[in-house]
Amino acid sequence: MKAIALFGLALSLAAGQPDHAARVRQLLRTMTLEEKVGQMTQVTLEAVLQSPSATGVRELDPARLEDALVKHHVGSILNVGPEGALTVDQWHGILTQIQDAALKRTRARIPVIYGIDAIHGATYTRGATLFPQAIAMAATWNPALVKRGGEITAAEVRASGIAWNFNPVLDIGRQPLWPRFWETLGEDTWLASALGRSYIEGLQGQAIGAPDKVAACLKHYVGYSYPLNGKDRTPAWITERALREWFLPTFEAGVAAGAPTVMVNSGEIDGIPGHANKHLLTEVLKGEMKFKGFVVSDWEDIKRLHTRDRVARTPKEAVVMAVNAGVDMSMVPFDFSFYDLLLQAVKEGLVSRARIDDAVQRILKVKLDLGLFEKPYPDPAMKARFGRPEYAEANLRASREAITLLKNERAALPLPKGSKLLVAGPTANLRSVLNGGWSLTWQGDAEELYPKDKPTVLEALKATYGEANVAYVPGATFDQVLDVNAAMEAAKGVDAIVLCLGEKTYCETPGNIDDLSLDPAQVHLAMALAKAGKPLILVLLEGRPRTLNPIVGSAAGIVLGYLPGLEGGRAIADVLSGAVNPSGRLPFTYPRFPNAITPYDHKPLEVFDVNTFNPQWPFGFGLSYTTFAYSDLSVDRSILGRKDRLSVSVKVTNSGRREGMETVQLYVQDEYGQVSRPVRMLKGFQKVVLAPGESKVVHFTLGARDLSFIGRANTRIVEPGTYKLWVGDLKGAFELK
Ligand code: BGC
Ligand code: BGC
């Protein structure tokens, strides 16, 4: 018997991840109900900090820490204080004190799992590598860069002593008004699934217990990103079929990639708040998807079932509803009400002990897998893995590959060295606009906290073209016209105008807008400068596609920077000067008008009769300083059986005069279906580097599963029929049997 058990252990150890089932069972046997409910409770750091002091520096409050960890057995803490990012050493101090309290002062000695929103790098650690935000990473269409971003983020988060990252956001960005649009990997399920998978691979590696890896948290499960009115945390109406077709597959991909935690949608779908949706949390996520990790609530959202949504008559009913729906941990986050109410509810038989054990075993397993029991304290050796020069290099590369050239009339760009420039606009000289929310502070607007050695667009242009050649007149703030006349005057002596427009930084609900159009003050400035008789180059720094149709025609060049991160200023200057050949491609459809929001994979009905699809720029679009030609599309079979793989290949040639990167995109259309099918769907992509004159053959394969869809019965089906396909301007077809 013993030999067999040992053999089993050896087997699972060999597979990379030790089997912690026995340890979890043993812990559960010895834990009190109070200890279990405490494991399910998460509070924010502020709840255990001293009150704000005159010096601004805040230490942990030993009495509050004792209250949380010892008296209430709290199992998890999150976030940073409102003052923002801490140094690595400060984090080490905080995490050490927290684990000391958990391990030395409690009976159960279970380490705390600390969670942080490291959504584009270790956002809350001073000096961290802040990558382009997700929407910009998606614009690279480069899974290797996304994976590298995950690796560096994991190393820097662990170097800060933290093992759990509330990322990736796997919501699909199909509603550009939504202020969290930029946290997504764009509008397409296929692209977002592929990049989400790469990110998780980078973040978690083979085993999350490795000293430089962290646990991912897929969020926000599910449908949060598609509010009907475009405002944050407002109702969505998404049918079961649409959920399964567009919104669930990224989460399926994330679960399959091994993400051990999931965060719940803060909003509601079809009248059912995410936190009360037993069908989606328990039946679909834990049942169908076989998710074995734990589900954490979003900020205060269990309480809100009572206070906001009023589907629960009392705070206790809210707790009962959420836990019975399948939420395993509550981000309370300021008090112990969840703990008190859940204890009562269990004693009254409103929540079963089995449900508590299930939640707790899920949490303990993640803590064990992370190695927190063996190594609960921050690892001083990991400090050397923080902020390395090669991380900045990788970041710069990601930024450069994200920048998307949308217009380049008569080769206005690149602007040759030695050019005299006027730089204007509200986004020209700020670091916050390059980074967006979740950067050093929640809103990312603490300009003074950003490292001074990372240039703004203006500073980078001065470094590239020489101080003397770059004049700067803002001309407007984000929403107010300023010195337009001075800008016009300054334009007289220059060769080109670089006008930096876009959005001020925001995060979550404070970023709600009523109009997708670019602010009128900025449009006014652009219209005025267009009359200066100099090539007008627009640089857009924005988290969502603010419509700018009235000024597109007047611009000679348009460069979309999204939120390109700390290296974004430099990357933009590199693209403007031609040091870098732009290769970003839109991961969403850029609308022409604020009320013409139609994604690329729309239905035939949306282009039928007088309906038109006429975006400003299509999904997948982006120009280069070279040109590419497609030829020799070949589809290796005309009939595809259910078990076959179809091979598609195409030759791509750099037909221009400088090296460039092309993203080859494969689209298919299912001609007929039992439910209406999109006009086209992305089913493969590959980014290739080509020297001038060079050709490469790019291969894709497709199987029946790739052509499956959600049928009338809301299940995934494969239907026989004819499929069209496109790569570049070439077309093909095949039959699925
Ligand atoms: C956000 C989450 C975030 C959490 C913790 C919530 O308000 O919706 O994305 O992970 O706060 O900061
Ligand atoms: C926190 C965020 C959180 C937000 C929710 C902020 O104070 O820092 O993490 O997402 O509140 O409203």
Write a brief caption for the model.
Residues 1-15 have low confidence and may be disordered. It is built from 22 helices and 26 strands. It is 31% helix and 18% strand.
* Small molecules in complex: beta-D-glucopyranose
Q: Structural class per helix/strand content?
A: alpha/beta
Bin the helical content. Answer: 25-40%
Number of strands: 26
Mean pLDDT: 96
How would you write the strand order of the largest sheet? 11-16-15-14-12-13
Low-confidence stretches: 1-15
Tally of individual helices: 22
For the sheet with most strands, the description reads: 6 strands, mixed
Query: What gap, in angstroms, lies between the N and C termini?
Result: 51 Å
Radius of gyration: 26 Å
Assign an overall shape: globular
Name the quaternary structure: single chain
Q: Estimate what percentage of residues fall within beta strands.
A: 15-25%
Describe the protein in words.
This protein is an alpha/beta fold and 737 residues long. Helix content is 31%, strand content 18%. A six-stranded mixed beta sheet has the order 11-16-15-14-12-13, sandwiched between helices. The chain has a five-stranded parallel beta sheet with strand order 4-3-2-1-10. A five-stranded mixed beta sheet has the order 18-26-25-20-21, with no helix packed on it. The structure holds beta-D-glucopyranose (2 copies). Residues 79, 299, 442, 508 line the site of one beta-D-glucopyranose.
Q: How are the SSEs placed, and which strands pair?
A:
Elements: H1 2-14, H2 21-30, H3 33-39, E1 41-44, H4 62-71, E2 76-78, H5 88-104, E3 113-116, H6 134-139, H7 143-159, E4 164-165, H8 189-204, E5 217-221, H9 240-247, H10 249-256, E6 261-264, E7 268-269, E8 272-273, H11 278-288, E9 294-296, H12 301-307, H13 315-325, E10 330-331, H14 337-347, H15 353-369, H16 389-402, E11 404-408, E12 421-424, H17 432-435, H18 457-465, E13 470-472, H19 484-491, E14 496-502, H20 520-530, E15 536-541, H21 549-552, E16 557-562, H22 568-577, E17 628-635, E18 639-640, E19 645-654, E20 660-670, E21 681-690, E22 695-703, E23 709-710, E24 716-717, E25 721-727, E26 730-736
Parallel strand pairs: 1-2, 1-10, 2-3, 3-4, 5-6, 6-9, 12-13, 12-14, 14-15, 15-16, 18-26
Antiparallel strand pairs: 7-8, 11-16, 17-19, 19-22, 20-21, 20-25, 23-24, 25-26
